[in-house]
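Researcher: Next entry in the queue.
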Amino acid sequence: MSETGPAIVVSGLRVIRGDRLVLRDVDCTIEAGLVTGLLGPSGCGKTTLMRAVVGVQRVAGGAIHIFAVPAGTPELRRRVGYMTQAPSVYGDLTVVENLRYFARVMDRRDRVRDVIELVGLGEYEHSLVRDLSGGERSRASLAVALLGEPDLLVLDEPTVGLDPLLRRELWATFHRLADAGTTLLVSTHVMDEAERCDRLLLMREGNMLAEGTPAELRARTAAPTLEAAFVALTEPR
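Model: Structure for this entry, 237 residues:
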């Protein structure tokens, strides 16, 4: 389903774990049909924000709306795809067996062949997942997230451990999906990947520091590179 306007609106979001405030009144807006990158140091709250967006994180305050519907609402389950940092596939099944299993759960058996081709796993479809490389397992997890043809795809560090060629291929896939109307929220630590995003959200210590296009963030800091802009915006003052 093609969307216009905001895909995600986060307002005053607060998350507490134990006695630690993990997200501090976070506000941000993510436009539909774009690839938005989520950047920040390890432990800054990126994964927690993503979990809140997909409706699996308990929150202490604030609100998130996905396509104008509260996050976690049952009607969003088929519209939101989520890929975690850890592979979300079974090691003792082959790639195609994993996809057929999840396709039955989603009632999307028709999508198995399409997603195998989309993530480039055709030659490995009959291989056990435990025998695949880390990058191949990541692509298998991405294939599962794509089975339902989600309107919103949330990807937590999807290219960790991949070589530069595979990372480039995956980012080309992300932009093809966005061109077809899918909204993508992608966390990354890699600056060249940040440059591939349509828009960026920068986080530090549970706070949203800045958002904008890569060019806008460079201009805001008068920095020659996005990496320099990131450092300028995230270093303690």
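Model: Residues 164-179 form the longest helix (16 residues).
Researcher: Noted, moving on.
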